[in-house]
Amino acid sequence: MAILVTGIAGFIGMQTAAALLERGETVIGIDNFNDYYSVALKEARVAELERIAGGRLTIHRVDIGDEAALTAALDGADFDRITHLAAQAGVRYSLENPAAYVRSNLAGHVNILEIARYRGVRHLVYASSSSVYGANKAMPFRVEDRVDHPVSLYAATKRADELISETYAHLFRVPQTGLRFFTVYGPWGRPDMALWKFTANILAGKPIDVYNHGDMQRDFTYIDDIVAGVLASLDAPPVDDGKEKAGGFTTPHRLYNIGNNRPEPLMELIKAIEAACNRKADLNLMPMQDGDVYATYADIDAIQSELGYAPATPIAVGVPNFVQWFREYSG
Q1: What are the residue boundaries of the structural domains of the chain, listed by start?
Q2: Is the omega angle on the peptide bond into residue 140 within 30 degrees of 0, that is, cis?
Q3: Choosing from 93, 101, 126, 154, which is the catalytic residue?
Q4: pLDDT tens per residue, range 254-265
Q5: How many other CB atoms are there within 10 angstroms of residue 14's CB atom?
Q6: Which end of the chain has fewer CB atoms within 10 angstroms, the N or the C?
Q7: Is there a catalytic annotation at residue 154?
């Protein structure tokens, strides 16, 4: 039976769908192909999926925030698992266009939960974010930590998604896993992310904007490691046994961090890009941006012990892989 992948034209959605197709699954994909960033990049991702799909891929161009259109698109489709990766991304953009986050991240999430509820799916895996930790000062970030001090609307919507999912797990016993992703990067990545921006500008001989004067840390996580965690989660639904799960729930609902478990100074990322590009960066040092945080660091004990998740890609390997892909993609 097929797997539904929302956000299939997005970075993580495309790479997850590719891994599912490569292991022989049939995939039904949903994406609205919005213009938050390059639609051409999204089309190229889907074209790559179609190249490897062997007829096992169906794409629906629909907005998950539009309940009627979503229901109509999936009428007659046969799937028993959902990997819900569609969302309006971006921390800073949420300051400019909050309505987009309410439609996609809140209404869209509920629409997907309703589909899971009425179809009785075996498992719904959905994307959360390390942004939910907000102003948390304790390191590393643990799924047991309180996360009620978001510093952006994006973060607030992702935490709200977790709570709404818990409601559906409690009332309707929908088996779910929420994944808090930590700074995902790699080939087919997003143009609004630092790695893409830095690489593009360094190769073009342009300065790069470095916030908080470079004094920041991120748990940079390579896309292959993220996808491995998504698939491991999808293949092992939580049991409805009343026992406490990761994240503190006793319903068939759990939360995992997916990170590299190794925060890197931002300047180390820049050095890795410089080495891969064989060029020095021209740094434009700037203050911290609104909605940003100083550091992220994932405690991955839960997903490591329960599913065997083991990130294997340091930035010394992942960054050159991205730069090589970027050169080929941008021509």
Answers
A1: 2-182+223-260+297-311
A2: yes
A3: 154
A4: 999 999 999 999
A5: 25
A6: C
A7: yes
